[in-house]
């Protein structure tokens, strides 16, 4: 399928997209920034379905400048890890994101191992 194939005659920006290999999206993706402390939606963005999620954060940041909102925590999906909020963040901004699932196919998992500090010195003759 062509990358920029139109799916609607009436809405020229609608596209086919994917959230994951099993979840398809037709049309648009909406991105919502919600204040988790008080439950208020602070900003929204709308992108084509084939646009990466991280592209929406620029529009959301623009909306946050009007009420002078300062972000202290971000609870995000892994798709937003390449956004400018994460790559250019200050030390005060805490990021919370679900980790990648570990698939070990019946082998040992990461917690079955531990590292022991070993120092190896090589005897090299000085000339």
Structure description:
- The chain has helices at 56-64, 84-87; strands spanning 15-18, 24-35, 40-48, 73-76, 94-97.
- It is built from two helices and five strands.
- The mean pLDDT is 79.
- A hairpin with a 4-residue loop joins β2 (24-35) and β3.
- Helix content is 10%, strand content 26%.
- The protein is mainly β and 127 residues long.
- Strands 1-2-3 form a three-stranded antiparallel β-sheet.
- The chain has a domain at 15-100.
* Rg from Cα: 22 Å
| Poorly predicted runs | none
Distance between termini?
Answer: 67 Å
Task: Order the strands across the largest sheet as they lie in space.
Answer: 1-2-3
Encode the helix/strand succession as letters: EEEHEHE
Please supply descriptive tags for the structure shown above.
5 strands, 127 residues, three-stranded antiparallel β-sheet, two-stranded parallel ribbon, mainly beta
Summarize the structure.
With 127 residues, the protein is mostly beta strands.
List the helices and strands and how they pair.
Elements: E1 15-18, E2 24-35, E3 40-48, H1 56-64, E4 73-76, H2 84-87, E5 94-97
Parallel strand pairs: 4-5
Antiparallel strand pairs: 1-2, 2-3
